[in-house]
Amino acid sequence: MHTTTTDSHHFTSPLSTCICIIFILALSFPALNIKVGISLKPYMIFWILVPIILFFKNKLEVLPVLLCEKFLVIFMFIYIATILTAQNKQVSLYYALVLFYMGVFYLSLRTLLCYIDVQTIKKSIFVSGMMFSIISISMYFIGLSQLSGPPYTPSGTHVFGVLIDRGIPRLSPFKGDPNMTAFPASIFFYYYLFNDRKMNKWDNLMNKLAMFFSIAAILLTFSKGTYIANLLTYFIAQAVIQKNKLRLVINYFNLAITLLLMSFLINEFFHINIAQIMASRFFIHTEDMGSVMSNRNVLWETAIKLFFQFPIFGIGLFNFREYSNHYAHNTYLEILCESGVIGFFFYMAFILATVYSSYNLIRKNKDMTFVFASITTIIIQMIGVSSTTNEIFFFMLALLIRLHFAHFPDKRKDRFVNRVVSFE
């Protein structure tokens, strides 16, 4: 490691870029882990040890705390304190340790991103996004080639990157949840969509190709919640940044044409009728579909009833399954009934403050629209999944902090911008 004088204090070597790419890629496949009592994931050791190394090297710097982070800390303390009211304190204690780990993970990530140049981060997102989509889609079609169908049976079958869910072959790399696979796919899509930096013809072609693959990955999850969340986010983000009404309409039209074209190509070459499958999921009531929706409605009703029974402090950290044997399939209702009105207030304050901070970035630099869009789509998708400890969301939060102070420098941290540290 050597030090050179410059106007920044960032890791800039090719090795730093490779490490960042590997980390983002590992983060994008949450199902890739080793079970040793807990799920040991590839990025865990490195991103916890490096800040410790930096500390002993006397090179550790920490940026100021944003309002959204203050609300998050208060919420986590309240959430953990609900162990006292929990029916199953052992379960709550275990998940309190999980929350503690997520806090360490976030602080490590937040600190390390401060040392990595913004262009290095963006390049890493570009490359890891392309790799994520290619790996996922390749696994999907390899799995599909080994299945006999349609119809695809039995439900619950996992083959390579395919999960058979009520006769539907859903994208599921490394046996992951298709709904969770959609989180990183959405982030990469918005990065490519709003990647407005000046590019030559080759880079522009690669960007469009990467966006094509990310859209395909989103489509192949066959997740209703993901489709709705991304359509809403696209309309919101375009409306926020596009002041020209005619251009806004053209962008909406381009999206519709792109989706139709991709659906046609996937059907033509791989015989997967996306339009027919999604029509059946949205509009055609079958016994399987009806039972799933009925079950989800029951879970949501249970969460609301539990909130009214324990409105102040809730039923306790991660104790919803003690009352229903299932997750709530709604992050907000789960937090509402588990942490009560006090915890829910601070969690929603955290969510709103995060969205506002990401919106402020757009006002400073429209190239940062992908951060606002990524955070927005994750927040909307969490309506349909239980995802309190979502590493992808924490990654986007840490990235938001990094980009915030890149665009709104803090005068108290002048000493932060004084030299480059690179791995060589």
Written account of the structure:
With 424 residues, the protein is mostly helical. 66% of the residues lie in helices and 5% in strands. The protein contains 15 helices and seven strands. The protein has helices at 14-28, 44-56, 67-81, 89-114, 118-145, 178-193, 201-220, 224-241, 245-270, 274-282, 287-309, 320-324, 331-364, 369-381, 391-407, and strands at 2-5, 34-35, 39-40, 158-159, 162-165, 168-171, 419-422. The longest helix is centred in the last third of the chain and has 34 residues, at 331-364. It starts with a strand and ends with a strand. The model is unreliable at 1-8 and 411-424 (pLDDT under 50).
Topology:
Elements (H helix, E strand, L loop, with lengths): L1 E4 L8 H15 L5 E2 L3 E2 L3 H13 L10 H15 L7 H26 L3 H28 L12 E2 L2 E4 L2 E4 L6 H16 L7 H20 L3 H18 L3 H26 L3 H9 L4 H23 L10 H5 L6 H34 L4 H13 L9 H17 L11 E4 L2
Antiparallel strand pairs: 1-7, 2-3, 4-5, 5-6
Give structural attributes.
424 residues, mainly alpha, 3-stranded antiparallel sheet, two-stranded antiparallel sheet, 15 helices, 66% helix, disordered N terminus, disordered C terminus
How far apart the termini lie comes to 5 Å
Largest sheet: 3 strands, antiparallel
Give a count of the beta strands, DSSP E runs of length 2 or more. Answer: 7
How many helical elements?
15
Strand content of the residues, in percent?
A: 5-15%
Describe the structure concisely.
By secondary structure, the protein is mostly helical. It has helices spanning 14-28, 44-56, 67-81, 89-114, 118-145, 178-193, 201-220, 224-241, 245-270, 274-282, 287-309, 320-324, 331-364, 369-381, 391-407, and strands at residues 2-5, 34-35, 39-40, 158-159, 162-165, 168-171, 419-422.
